[in-house]
Design a protein that fits this description.
Blueprint: H1 7-22, H2 27-32, H3 38-46, H4 49-55, E1 59-63, H5 66-73, H6 79-87, E2 90-91, H7 97-100, E3 107-111, H8 113-116, E4 126-131, E5 137-141, E6 150-159, E7 163-168, H9 189-195, H10 199-208, H11 210-217, E8 222-227, H12 229-241, H13 244-252, E9 255-256, H14 262-267, E10 270-273, E11 284-290, E12 293-297, E13 302-312, E14 315-320, H15 327-330, H16 345-353, H17 365-374, H18 376-398
Parallel strand pairs: 1-7, 8-14
Antiparallel strand pairs: 1-2, 3-4, 4-5, 5-6, 6-7, 8-9, 10-11, 11-12, 12-13, 13-14
The protein binds 2-acetamido-2-deoxy-beta-D-glucopyranose (NAG) (6 copies).
């Protein structure tokens, strides 16, 4: 059968749409069309940065041609250091040719994947992009002396607003990125967290010995949700009240034995088992997206991810704004003086809305009692959790 001419382009367009929506971008394939970037492409693959780029949904890759790469290779850096340097060439934002030439205020600082490794001290994980005279755009790692080390050459490929690949003139050179780097499993998880605003939490991991369980899980994949120092400090009176095994369970509840990038958390709502999980429906919580926010819901409290300490497959560490309180430990906690039930619905609602008696940023066990009795939201949440558990159970059965 012969297709009439207008049908053919329509069909190919549909096929193209089909493929572009079912397959996320593949940086290796995008660069393979341009032999002048073959060295850069090769190093993206062997450093596993290609996989990280493919997982991100909004990203810019500054590619350097083979001559530029030979300048880098002449420095004889270890592969882990090369990975850090190349991470500095990957921006966590979309800069197409148009946006690069229309930077508000003439310059901007953008976070790079080096920033997300947690190994970039201060602002060294940021790159300054500056619009210059004559339509030129310059790039400078924030920790060098401000001289623009590379300029924009051309756009290589753009999939708005998922990935932009641009050709820049030289390697972005930074003493911090070029500092000798160890293998990924050399991460000292607790000192890493301590340096990034989670010192109180890491101290608890060390003092209870829970650190060892966390560390043992890094190679196989680990996501840690660390409450920030202020949150832990406010929680300490309650923490001290727990028995030693309960303390360890509470801490283990903040680790998930699977690597989750922020993108994965955003696109996979559902139940998560933790390092404290023993058996089904124990010590788990639900990941729930709320716009750009990623929320973690236990039956007692809902915490929100507030920042990334480190995101480098197989390890991700995120800051959260509340201590995750497992229902296994906080359900049976002594309830606040119960409102007189006789008054019925109104009283119950008032109780549900009343703020907890203390530390407002840490869910109080008393809140849970009120919530479970009065609030439809929680009951819906419970329903969703049951359905998700069934779903997860079925999925797990196949794994
Ligand atoms: C951009 O990424 C999203 C999520 O992966 C995908 O659904 C969409 O199809 C991508 N857009 C293009 C043009 O490929
Ligand atoms: C990306 O493309 C390369 C080369 O075509 C291929 O070897 C690789 O498996 C692809 N990666 C993914 C995740 O599809
Ligand atoms: C970027 O660098 C230029 C040149 O050193 C400087 O004038 C500008 O203030 C910097 N921009 C930002 C946002 O730091
Ligand atoms: C991490 O470093 C601290 C001191 O900086 C040390 O006490 C701890 O044992 C280290 N942890 C591991 C797993 O090496
Ligand atoms: C600690 O436990 C005791 C006894 O169960 C209780 O009276 C007290 O309110 C608790 N303190 C905190 C801060 O939770
Ligand atoms: C939904 C629910 O559990 N409601 C209970 C709230 O508390 C009163 C009094 O204790 C019970 O009668 C309700 O069944």
């Amino acid at each position: 059968m012969q297709l009439s001419p207008p049908v053919v382009p329509t069909l190919s367009l549909l096929l193209l749409l089909f493929f572009s929506t079912t397959h996320a971008h593949n940086i290796t394939r995008m660069l393979a069309k341009h032999p002048e970037f073959s060295t850069f492409n090769h190093y993206l693959t062997i450093t596993h940065l290609a996989g990280e780029i493919n997982r991100r949904q909004t990203i810019t890759v500054c590619a350097v041609d083979n001559a530029g790469m030979s300048d880098l290779l002449a420095k004889h850096l270890s592969i882990y250091t090369i990975k850090n340097v190349l991470s500095l060439h990957i921006f966590a934002d979309y800069f197409g040719a148009k946006k690069l030439h229309q930077i508000t205020g003439g310059s901007t600082l953008t976070a790079t994947m080096f920033q997300a490794t947690g190994k970039a001290p201060g602002t060294s994980g940021y790159v300054n992009i500056t619009d210059m005279k004559g339509g030129r755009v310059g790039f400078a790692p924030e920790d060098n002396d401000g001289t623009l080390s590379a300029v924009y050459v051309k756009s290589v490929d753009e999939i708005p607003y998922n990935i932009s690949v641009i050709h820049i003139s030289h390697i972005l050179s930074s003493p911090e990125a070029e500092a000798p780097a160890g293998a990924p499993s050399d991460h000292n998880l607790t000192s890493l967290m301590a340096k990034q605003g989670c010192k109180a939490f890491s101290d608890l991991l060390r003092s209870t010995g829970a650190e060892e369980t966390f560390t043992q899980n890094v190679d196989g994949g680990l996501t840690v949700f660390c409450p920030t120092d202020a949150v832990i400090n406010a929680f300490m009176p309650k923490y001290k009240n727990l028995t030693n095994p309960a303390k360890v369970s509470l801490l283990m509840y903040h680790g998930v034995p699977v690597y989750n990038s922020l993108g994965m958390l955003r696109s996979n709502n559902g139940l998560m088992n933790t390092l404290a999980t023993e058996g089904p429906n124990k010590y788990d919580f639900t990941v729930q997206n709320d716009g750009e926010d990623v929320k973690l819901e236990t039956k007692v409290v809902t915490a929100t991810i507030k920042g990334t300490v480190l995101d480098e497959d197989p390890l991700a560490v995120y800051k959260i704004d509340k201590v995750l309180l497992p229902r296994e430990l906080f359900k049976a906690a002594p309830a606040a003086p119960a409102p007189k039930a006789a008054k019925g619905k109104k009283t119950t609602e008032a109780a549900a809305e009343a703020p907890g008696p203390d530390v407002s940023d840490v869910g109080d066990p008393a809140d849970q009692t009120a919530d479970e009795n009065g609030s439809g939201r929680i009951r819906d949440g419970w329903f969703v959790t049951v359905i998700l558990s069934l779903f997860l159970g079925t999925t797990m059965a196949f794994v």
